[in-house]
Amino acid sequence: MRTPTLKTLRSRGIExxxxxxxxxxxxxxxxxxxxxxxxxxxxxxxxxxxDRCCLAMDARGHGRSAKPEPPYYWRSFGRDLVLAASLFExxxxxxxxxxxxxxxTVQTAAIRPDTYSAILLVDPTIFARDYxxxxxxxxxxxxxxxxxxxxxxxxxxxxxxxxxxxxxRPEILRDYCEYGVLPNGDxxxxxxxxxxxxxxxxxxxxxxxxxxxxxxxxRQPVTIMRAGKTRTQDVxxxxxxxxxxxxxxxxxxxxxxVLPEASHYIAMESPDLVAxxxxxxxxxxx
Length: 286
What we know:
Number of helices: 10
CATH architecture: 3-Layer(aba) Sandwich
Strand order of the largest sheet: 1-2-4-3-5-6-10-11
Helix content: 25-40%
CATH superfamily: Alpha/Beta hydrolase fold, catalytic domain
Radius of gyration: 17 Å
Order of helices and strands: EEEHEHEHEHEHHEEHHEEHH
């Protein structure tokens, strides 16, 4: 079983953490969801060829990356991923992005097209076009998140019987908890602090976050996996799909897979399905 190396880079004055599983190029380049981190991909990476390079960045405000004070704008995450791809000299990668990670993967494909040969978007947070410029979602619940735990194991035990975590694969929830907290005094705190997570949600529907112009520039093959239950504009349900049902029609070369019984957390519930689609894309672009 491979163990990744933690590397750091600087983007516009802040340090960003990148997890690297060494191997052959072209790599698999992973981008995680809001509030998550790069090590949430561990179990999927274990299903991929061991000789293939994998890269997973902790987005700013998450994991082992720096946590500047809000506001957090979605295009900043895209610029960070572009920089990481440039510094690691990534070309022809298979890009995999879940939720917010799907949004920033599309940004990267538009800004630096050579980064990817194909893209897998796992329930990407790309809303219907008319959502953008509207009122922000009510993310006040995020500020009330418990922020301190005695240990990663306490976090795991607290979460494993609760929604949405009870439907996750236990080993993925373990990774989420193990790398989702940081030592602080006599305990641990969330590696994505509640006020940062809230800022990301609050800026998710701004006109600045509308990337439909970028979508029109993407020419690589794109596969979209999305949950069957779609999030509505007036109910901020994190388990429902934020992906516009017509998103596939806005890409030049895309197909979609709708999973009626899945929640937004497809990569945590069905990692084998995600790994299979990654391998399918990798085989198709050889």
